[in-house]
Design brief:
The structure is a homodimer. The first copy, chain A, is an alpha/beta fold. In chain A, about 45% of the residues lie in helices and about 15% in strands. Chains A and B meet through helix 4, helix 6, strand 2 and helix 7 of A and helix 4, helix 6, strand 2 and helix 7 of B. Chain A binds a DNA duplex through helix 2 and helix 4.
Chain lengths: ~325, ~325
Amino acid sequence: MTLAQVAELSGVSRSTASRVLNGDERVSDDARDRVLRAADSIGYRPNRAARSLASGRSSIVGLVLPTEHLTADPYGSQVISGVVAAANERDQQVMLWLTHQGPDETVQTIFRNGIVDGLIVAAPALGDDWVEELIDGPMPTVLIGRHPTRRDVNVVDIDDVGGARLAVDHLVGLGHRRIATITGNMARPDAAARYQGYVAALEAHGIALDERLVAAGTYTPSSGVAAMVRLLKHRPTAVFAANDQMAHGAYEAIEIAGLRIPEDVSVVGFDGFSSFSEPDPPLTTVRQDLAAIGEHVVDVLLQASGSDDHETLRVTVGVELVERSSTGPPATGPPP
Amino acid sequence: MTLAQVAELSGVSRSTASRVLNGDERVSDDARDRVLRAADSIGYRPNRAARSLASGRSSIVGLVLPTEHLTADPYGSQVISGVVAAANERDQQVMLWLTHQGPDETVQTIFRNGIVDGLIVAAPALGDDWVEELIDGPMPTVLIGRHPTRRDVNVVDIDDVGGARLAVDHLVGLGHRRIATITGNMARPDAAARYQGYVAALEAHGIALDERLVAAGTYTPSSGVAAMVRLLKHRPTAVFAANDQMAHGAYEAIEIAGLRIPEDVSVVGFDGFSSFSEPDPPLTTVRQDLAAIGEHVVDVLLQASGSDDHETLRVTVGVELVERSSTGPPATGPPP
DNA sequence: TCGTAGCATGGGAGCGCTTCCACAGCAACG
DNA sequence: CGTTGCTGTGGAAGCGCTCCCATGCTACGA
């Protein structure tokens, strides 16, 4: 089952058979028909290696993901599922690497196995030197989430600032003024942006930023607990957690303090992935659509590897507020 | 930077250069030295497509995973991370497919892109026809978890039966006799095996199986809640949940009923992955080591695609009981 | 009628590598 | 001294495909 056999069986040359199989227009209907039928009848499958060698492209995209996002939080799963779905729809295959070994080693592995047409790099953080190596490497690269320092990179980005504003706007709309926040690790650009959005929204509503209502977390549930315990001392009526996991942690701290959600404290999260367990009450959150991100990032990569003008591409994906029952108006009377 | 350039630079033929780069013994030390130095100096990276075309193998393994295991539970993440780590250590790359589209389409995609040397298929369940298509397809295949019906397949399997016995033995050892179980979906062979182990362990201890202490779940937290609510009517002093997620659900039902863990009801789970949030009290569970599974499955695949005797390979990986604080002796007095 | 443009097609080179085969050189043997 | 066997090496054939170029053909206008 090679192209030659298909060609022979259908009485055309290999060239023509190849054209048909690659969707070239310049073939007579008759020839096209015969080739397609022949290919079908012998169950022909093109040899990808040969095609790749001859054409110089493989239809394989690489996806690089820090392992911790796969094993320690739900983000990686969502990214993988979004990217794989989008890639397959576009006739691309996905090769996956996790940066679990020494970063250097992974980068070398990726480059050494340079069969991919391009690279998708998820969640770059400050201090991830390997990301820069990849960016400056030989193949086109797209990041998911903006890079902390570099601006000359193709990026598909979430509107973190806008999302945080949505969250705070919602709380202000309910009547809250003492709105706390639990931030993520500021080395991560998305965490920084969510904080930035929080600050901007407060300012837009004429609410002064109170440093005591800002607590740093690290995106983990337990860091959310700790942060919330600290915040509760300053009696916020609402809290915006920079991700859902910390919001879950906040739930716990609020419960331990004997307070109710949302009557005593409203909680808003960020991300909106299913995290395998539904908190009680259901969490109001800002949802980012990683399926859409997957689509965009694959499109951008294909575009970047298709053309040779090395213009930097940049797409921002919107988010939406999902109102559930963890938010409500603040208590009117003085807190108990 | 082609092999020819390396050869020319080091003054040997392409054949010799190829031998050196592929670790062939039959090369003089002198030639090896010169080739390696030359390759290094021009930063030579072999063209995988060419190598693959010429040699007939690609050093790429395919990993096929039902999407739901990635987005709805932590299993998929663990499998991916285990397989990728093991594969990369063995100089193999991983191409990932999720069965999110119509299964048929995915299978066709996989076969059409037949560049992989072999296939790893995770978590086959009853009714997954696509698994059989893959098994009977053209490339060597290894399953993670036994197939519900087929026995003529390479498999790396978890000792589910043994794990369930460990759990029940532990509870019996603490003095429990009224031990309930929450099963998984019996269409999944692992769920069936865990139930089978439960039954066997009870029998081994001379405890009669009480049908009222068996409730069916579906591996989800909420199914665990529902199952536990039903079970509590029959006053078990302990429960073995067929996975950790349902154990978390059981926690909730027990709490709602106003009972304490482990004083009133002991709980044992199964899996032992980090599921992004630690339950309180920490869950005693049976841990399966998916990193080890990854190693084995890649080894088996390499072995299966290396030799041409089509003997079916089969490996079972052990599990271990992790004792934490969700289990304790039953209350001596009558329940409140 | 001829020249020319446009189209479908086939021929063939070549992508970069592996691997079979042949061969040269050398040591050891009878 | 010729034969044998071994080792290191190079030549060359391909792996299956893409794609450039040349070719033959039809249709058109001059």
